Structure formats: structure tokens, C-alpha cells
């Protein structure tokens, strides 16, 4: 049933894809690039925007976000990432409010025509990152992708279309099935975990169809993005910061027996620039993960160090402490221990550790992503310095206590 729902969606939205004969044939300039970016008010989008504005080969950026108050919300998003909020006043930036689920993107005909005439690249990054939403609720997002793809195809410069997908779509992949290939064609069962991952599967297939019919469409399949190596900024709503804050209150950090392909957000933004400025045609899919994975035990050791040697225990032991509190959790507990709101996720991680399954991380083909990105090829492993930068960022934004004395008081349950 879920598989047929995905296939039905692929069939339904394939009819909305631009036809190869509708496509403009370029030429696309090599300098003076003009980029349309969606989702720039989000975590990754703010990093992408700052990188695009700062790059000499990018002449102009149109950001396209939903209303209201897009300029104010953009400023806040940049500030939260500790990026220059003055970017919103840059002459290189036009901030648009619109609705990509509409054929005209909710823009005036003048603005729509201006985009059609000028854009050389479309980076479609806006998506609902919600693991509880069913696939059926992503219809407007998939429709929006087709609308943007049509704009790309019919634009004067045959704009290159780039879409941010997620490696989460391979969450159900079994090591026994071999390496996860760097293309959209593999076991759909692996993508079934959430409505969110199913929606990404549908879009990857639509883009693959578009690419095979000759349109310049590329999926950027992203692995876990960690905090920026420049600022340490890692959104406090994500599971790792939640785990760290909760561990301070629990008095210990968990040892997760696994390896990590985490890529810092500023590295990802720099890799995006590599993909935008390359002069070679991009393949239909790039799996963007760190080429030099690291062990969780190393990074959690560094986080422990940054927190004044917080003890490390096995994941099941850590989870047992969490579960004990969950039975009578007060509002104050939920505030100090936000992991209480993600019990099913941490329960399954504890179970994977207890059964040894956590070690069975599949390998991912990522040759194309590296071939087109010097940044990715040269990226040093995530290290002690990164971990300290994340912890300092969480302290600066008041997410965790800033003094080690407070850290210790906090850990007395
Ligand atoms: N962060 C990661 O580790 C990671 C890993 C893999 C893939 N990704 C993918 O990367 C992309 C960005 O992720 P993120 O972590 O930056 O997410 P995020 O912080 O939640 O940002 C999501 C962005 O999408 C916009 N958006 C959501 N629903 C929208 C709608 N109906 N109409 C218009 N805009 C809408 C948001 O706008 P508002 O400000 O208006 O809400 C925001 O700009 C997503 O496609 C995500 O699947 C992220």
C-alpha cells in the first residue's frame, strides 16, 4: 500500500513535468550566475544564502520564501546562524514572497518573467522537515517542485535545477543489500520510514525522469549536516543538541556504537558553490556525505571534554535513565531533558546498540559528489575542534548552561 502510494504519486506528478521539447537550450553563462533559492529562511538555506552572496561568480540571488515578513524572518535566520544579518540589504539580493505550489509561484507576471529571463540556477531547498506528516500532505511540495522545474526548463538560460533530498530515504537499507547507489533507482522499501522520506523518494524519481529526458535536473542527497565549523551553529531543535542538553541533566552522555558521515553546514554550502560553478554537466544525483567518516565514540569524547568531562555510559544505560524519568516527567523535566519528547527515536537507538545493529551502517556511493566538489574531496575529518565549537555555540545561545559549575548543578536530578 505505501509503495503503491509512492508509485501513484510519481505517476501523477510525472504528468506535470516539463516536456523535453518545451525546454530552452541555453546557453548558460559561466560567470555572472543568477540563482533562485527557496527555503533561505531555514537552517541550511541561511548558510546557502550567505555563501551565494559572498561568491564573486554569483551576480544576483533571488530568495523565494512564503509570506509574511520575509526580510525580517531572513534577518533572524541569519542572526541565529551567527551569519551577517546585513546580507538582507545586499544589492545582490532580491527577497521574494510567493507560493511555489502555484503555477506562477505566487509572483507578479513581471517578476515571473524576470526570473525566466535571468536565472541560471534554481536551488530548491524549501521542504517540510516533519517526520510525523503523511506522504499525502506533501502534495503541494511536490507540485511546487514541478512548477520550479518548469520554470528552470523554460528559462532563457536552461537553468540548472538542484534539489535538496535526504539520505534518510535510505534509512531502511540493509547492509546485506550492498552499497547504497548514487542514483534514484533502488529498493523503494528502504524509503518507507516516514512520509517525509517517501516524499523525497517521489521527488528523486521525478528529477531522475526529468534528467533522463535531457533537462538539467540534479538531486543533492544530503546526509546528516552538523554545526558549522566556522561558528559551531547547529540548530537546537535537532536530535544531537537535544541529546547533549538532556545528557547534562542526566549526568552522562551515551556511547552509540556507530560511524558518522556528518558534514559541517558551511562545508555543505561551499560544496553547493562547487556544484553551481562547475562547467561540466552535473549527473542526476549526488550523495553529499563526509568522505572521511568518524566514530561516534571519538566525537562524543570531545563533547564530554567540552562539557568538563561528563561521564560516558552505554546507550542502553543512558536510555534507562531517560525512561525512568519519562514515567513522571514534569514540565520542568521536559524543558531540561528535551530527549523526553523523542522517546521512540532514542528507544530504537538504544535497541540498535543492545543488538549490535548500530554497527551495521550501510556504505554509500558518493563518487559523483566528490568528483564535482574540491571542497568535499579536501574536507578534513570532523574533530575535537568542531565538537568544542558546537558546545560553545549552544552555550552562547543559552541552550545549555555556560559555566561548568552550572553544568554540574544541572546534572543533579
Ligand atoms: N539539516 C539537515 O541535516 C538535512 C539533512 C538532509 C536533508 N535536508 C534537507 O535540506 C532542506 C533544508 O533543511 P533545513 O534543515 O534547513 O530545514 P528547516 O530549517 O526546517 O528549513 C526549511 C525551509 O523550508 C521552508 N518551508 C517549509 N515549508 C514551506 C512551505 N510550505 N512553503 C514555503 N517554504 C516552506 C521553511 O520556511 P519558513 O521559514 O517559512 O518555515 C524554511 O525556509 C530540506 O529539504 C531538508 O529535507 C536537511
From TrEMBL:
Q: Which Pfam families match?
A: NAD_binding_4
Name this protein carries in UniProt: Thioester reductase (TE) domain-containing protein
Where does the source fall among the domains of life? Eukaryota
PANTHER family in UniProt: CARRIER DOMAIN-CONTAINING PROTEIN, L-2-AMINOADIPATE REDUCTASE
Q: Which UniProt keywords apply?
A: Phosphopantetheine, Phosphoprotein
Please list the residue ranges annotated as the Thioester reductase (TE) domain. 37-271
Q: Which SUPFAM superfamilies match?
A: NAD(P)-binding Rossmann-fold domains (SSF51735)
| InterPro entries, A to Z | FAR_NAD-bd, NAD(P)-bd_dom_sf
Amino acid at each position: 500500500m505505501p509503495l503503491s502510494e509512492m508509485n501513484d504519486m510519481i505517476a501523477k506528478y510525472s504528468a506535470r513535468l516539463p516536456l523535453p521539447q518545451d525546454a530552452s537550450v541555453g546557453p548558460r553563462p559561466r560567470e555572472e550566475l543568477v540563482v533562485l533559492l527557496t527555503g533561505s529562511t531555514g537552517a541550511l538555506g541561511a548558510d546557502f544564502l550567505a555563501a551565494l552572496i559572498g561568491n564573486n561568480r554569483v551576480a544576483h540571488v533571488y530568495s523565494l520564501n512564503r509570506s509574511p515578513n520575509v526580510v525580517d524572518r531572513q534577518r533572524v535566520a541569519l542572526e541565529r546562524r551567527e551569519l551577517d544579518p546585513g546580507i538582507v540589504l545586499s544589492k545582490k539580493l532580491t527577497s521574494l514572497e510567493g507560493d511555489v505550489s502555484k503555477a506562477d509561484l505566487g509572483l507578479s507576471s513581471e517578476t515571473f518573467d524576470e526570473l525566466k529571463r535571468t536565472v541560471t540556477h534554481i536551488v530548491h531547498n524549501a521542504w517540510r522537515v516533519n517526520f510525523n506528516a503523511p506522504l499525502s500532505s506533501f502534495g503541494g511540495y511536490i507540485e511546487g517542485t514541478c512548477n520550479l522545474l518548469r520554470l528552470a526548463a523554460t528559462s532563457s538560460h536552461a537553468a540548472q535545477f538542484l534539489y535538496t533530498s535526504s539520505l534518510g530515504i535510505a534509512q531502511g537499507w540493509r547492509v546485506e543489500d550492498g552499497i547504497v547507489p548514487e542514483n534514484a533507482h533502488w529498493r523503494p522499501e528502504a524509503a518507507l520510514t516516514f512520509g517525509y522520506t517517501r516524499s523525497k523518494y517521489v521527488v528523486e524519481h521525478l528529477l531522475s525522469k526529468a534528467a533522463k529526458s535531457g533537462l538539467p535536473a540534479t538531486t543533492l542527497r544530503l546526509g546528516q549536516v552538523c554545526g558549522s565549523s566556522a561558528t559551531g551553529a547547529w540548530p537546537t531543535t535537532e536530535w544531537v543538541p537535544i541529546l547533549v542538553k538532556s545528557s547534562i541533566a542526566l549526568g552522562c552522555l551515551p556511547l552509540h556504537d556507530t560511524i558518522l558521515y556528518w558534514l559541517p553546514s558551511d562545508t555543505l554550502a561551499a560544496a553547493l558553490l562547487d556544484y553551481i560553478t562547475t562547467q561540466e554537466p552535473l549527473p542526476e544525483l549526488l550523495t553529499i556525505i563526509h568522505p572521511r567518516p568518524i566514530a561516534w565514540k571519538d566525537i562524543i569524547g570531545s563533547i564530554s571534554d567540552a562539557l568538563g568531562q561528563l561521564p560516558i555510559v552505554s546507550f542502553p544505560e543512558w536510555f534507562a535513565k531517560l525512561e525512568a524519568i519519562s514515567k513522571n516527567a514534569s514540565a520542568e523535566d521536559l524543558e531540561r531533558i528535551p530527549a523526553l519528547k523523542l522517546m521512540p527515536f532514542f528507544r530504537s537507538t538504544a535497541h540498535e546498540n543492545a543488538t549490535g545493529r548500530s554497527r551495521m551502517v550501510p556504505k554509500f556511493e558518493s563518487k559523483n559528489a566528490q568528483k564535482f566538489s574540491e571542497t568535499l574531496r579536501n574536507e578534513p575529518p570532523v574533530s575535537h575542534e568542531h565538537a568544542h565549537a558546537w558546545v560553545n555555540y549552544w552555550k552562547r545561545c543559552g541552550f545549555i548552561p555556560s559555566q561548568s559549575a552550572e553544568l554540574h548543578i544541572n546534572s543533579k536530578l
